[in-house]
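Homework help board

Subject: predicted structure for assignment chain

Our instructor gave us this sequence and asked us to write out the predicted structure in token form, then describe one feature. I got the tokens but I'm not sure how to describe them. Can anyone check?
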Amino acid sequence: MKKVQIFLIMLVFAGQTSLAQNIAVSGVVGNTDGQPLRYAFVLEKQLNNATYTDSLGRFSLTVNQQSQLTVTCNGYAGSTIAVDGHQNLQITLKRDNSAGAADNSNANVKAVEEAFKPVQDESGRGGINQFGSITFTNIKETRGSQFLFTQWVHGYLVKVNGDIIQAPTLLLNYDKMTGDLFLTENLSSVMVADKNSIQSFVLFSPQDRRYTFERMLGISADLYAQVLSAGPKYKLYKLIKTKFIPSNYKTDGITSTGNTYDEYADENSYYVINLTTTFFQPLNLNKKSIRSVFAAEGSKADDFLATHKIKEDDAWVTAFGDAMNK
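My token output:
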């Protein structure tokens, strides 16, 4: 029994030590001409954490202070940088004019082939045209969209075994109606993810905003849930359900009713998982529900509500979740 207790104490100590070694690193990635590189991919394998640089070449990432960062960018030779406790990094990549400059390794190609499949039925599918490519905008007046973005965006994927899939030429978009994740490598052919293979994915908007989605069967079997807040105690999610509402305009020449436009309407619902108990609960954005779900936090929820009026938007839910995780 004493040996078991000692072993458990060592495990706790090791976990605390590992946590203490994690630091927030920021930096800039540029080329040899001093120009910042956008969409350079920065990967830290020890924590399996990654991000892209923004339009100014900047990035920030939580890493282990003794780990190494792998930095890649389309058209440039990759580089491996030792963190070595430094919290501010200046990284320079050299141009690579070879045929393999895109750095699509055999491992990445194989991972994509395993986790994705070609779109077969192009003609009967939403925004997919007869050539196998997707159009994200509508020809006639339509409000909203079935896709998260109106264009292909950069991102990366995490398989169920924890492996990260990313390559400089891969572009993605998420279908909010079906929960399908689409991928293209050459903007002419499209593949769709096998939901049983992809546990989560991260997309970066043209404005450099990060969107993280996870497959949570406790929330939905078909749709991925967006992570709004993640901490040591709770994760808060948003589930987006998008419905197509066709035009229902009617007129008798004197009076008219309905809308003259088609619409993709989003219905958002929020969920909380207690990471200690692994218990899921819906989160209705009213004081009664919030107090019930976060009863274990005592007065912390009431203190937040006293200074932050409830709003049904992502920013409020994120700020609330971050406060409860402190």
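Reply (TA_rk): Your tokens look well-formed. For the description, you could write something like this. The chain is about 15% helix and 35% strand. That's the kind of observation they're looking for.
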